[in-house]
Amino acid sequence: MKEELVSRELIAARLEVSDWKDGIRKAGSLLVDNGDIEEAYIEEMIDSVLKLGPYMVITKGFALAHSAPSEAVKRNSLSLINLSEGVEFGSVNDPVYVIMCLACTDKTSHMEEIQKVAMRLMKKGTIEALKDAQSIDELYEIINSKE
Question: Model pTM greater than 0.90?
Answer without folding.
Answer: yes
